[in-house]
């Protein structure tokens, strides 16, 4: 009788162990929720909100350019193994729908920018005599601006969407996700206040800079700065010789004091324009990708702090 009972207990323990092993396998590595983000900034937010409960990777890694990303069969397997997929939306990841289809996954896809007010073109400064935004030179047919993460207020929307997506995929983690998201949103509020304080130290007439591609429209709108770009919202279309001639004229006419390179974009165009206009190269801004650790922009908050420091140093 006693012996029968212990056999029963042992089999129960074995069954229980097998059950958790199967569950762990299904969840990815360990017991964590396997999340795939389209690019590194979303990965950072998922990691902040998900904490220890999630394992998150980015399809477009640090230094990569999501505009021109070409997914591989390996990416399809990564997406296929995910329990939750997080994308920017606003037309940023033109390759994503096909990739999700190729992965034949049923995992939910969260559009992290949902609820953001899309930045409508044109934004200042208008190109002299053209009646267009300077930022839309290279790609006038482009749609809305996908780079909504450069507004820290929008970042709050992104983080809230990610929190809700994680709760949907892993309801048991609700308390963790809510606590982590609330703490992170407080950090974003401090970041926003710091950026405003630094912008206030730049003379208003100096608050204009030139970048390679049109990634800073949301930043410009939030903080009262003017960004002019050589390329459109995407890096796909190159600026033509005629575009470049217009850019050079505009930089001279509007006395744009500083040009900036971007981490994921070819620097040659900006260097050439700097040589022809005599405008200074202010440094490198991080627009569409974070850096690896210990780089200057390994997190979203670090990226934003780096960018405003570089801008202020160049314009003051
Ligand atoms: Zn971009």
Provide keyphrases for this structure.
single chain, 316 residues, alpha/beta, Rossmann fold, 2 domains, four-stranded parallel sheet, 8 strands, binds zinc ion
> Could you state the CATH homologous superfamily of the largest domain?
Nitrogenase molybdenum iron protein domain
CATH third-tier fold name of the largest domain = Rossmann fold
Strand content: 5-15%
Poorly predicted runs of 5 or more residues: 13-28, 122-142
Q: Could you name the CATH class of the largest domain?
A: Alpha Beta
- Tally the structural domains: 2
CA distance, first residue to last residue:
86 Å
Bound molecules: zinc ion
- Determine the number of helices (DSSP H or I, runs of at least 4 residues): 10
Strand count, sense and barrel status of the largest sheet are: 4 strands, parallel
Overall pLDDT = 85
**Number of separate strands:** 8
C-alpha Rg (nearest Å): 23 Å
- For the record, the CATH architecture of the largest domain stands as 3-Layer(aba) Sandwich
Strands across the major sheet, in which order? 2-1-3-4
Helix content: 40-55%
Question: Nutshell version of this structure?
Answer:
The chain is built from 10 helices and 8 strands. Strands 2-1-3-4 form a 4-stranded parallel sheet, sandwiched between helices. A 4-stranded parallel sheet has the order 6-5-7-8, with helices on both faces.
């Amino acid at each position: 009788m006693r012996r029968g009972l212990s056999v029963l207990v042992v089999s129960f323990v074995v069954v229980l162990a097998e059950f958790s092993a199967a569950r762990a396998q299904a969840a990815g590595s360990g017991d964590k929720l396997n999340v795939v983000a389209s690019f590194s900034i979303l990965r950072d937010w998922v990691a902040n909100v998900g904490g220890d409960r999630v394992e998150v990777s980015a399809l477009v890694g640090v230094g990569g350019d999501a505009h021109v990303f070409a997914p591989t069969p390996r990416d399809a397997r990564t997406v296929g193994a995910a329990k939750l997929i997080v994308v920017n939306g606003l037309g940023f990841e033109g390759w994503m729908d096909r990739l999700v289809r190729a992965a034949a996954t049923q995992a939910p896809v969260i559009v992290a920018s949902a609820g953001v007010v899309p930045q409508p073109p044109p934004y200042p400064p208008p190109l002299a005599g053209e009646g267009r935004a300077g930022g839309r030179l290279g790609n006038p047919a482009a749609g809305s601006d996908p780079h909504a993460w450069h507004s820290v207020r929008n970042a709050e929307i992104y983080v809230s969407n990610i929190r809700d997506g994680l709760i949907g995929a892993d309801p048991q983690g609700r308390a963790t996700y809510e606590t982590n998201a609330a703490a992170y949103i407080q950090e974003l509020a401090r970041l926003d206040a710091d950026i405003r304080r630094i912008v206030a130290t730049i003379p208003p007439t100096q608050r204009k800079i030139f970048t390679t591609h049109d990634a800073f429209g949301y930043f410009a709108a939030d903080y009262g700065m003017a960004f002019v770009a050589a390329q459109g919202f995407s890096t796909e279309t190159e600026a033509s010789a005629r575009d470049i001639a217009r850019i050079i004229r505009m930089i001279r006419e509007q006395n744009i004091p500083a040009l900036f390179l971007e981490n994921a974009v070819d620097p040659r165009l900006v260097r050439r324009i700097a040589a022809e206009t005599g405008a200074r190269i202010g440094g490198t801004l991080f627009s569409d990708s974070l850096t690896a650790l210990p780089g200057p922009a390994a997190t979203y908050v670090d990226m934003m702090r780096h960018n405003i420091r570089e801008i202020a140093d160049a314009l003051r």
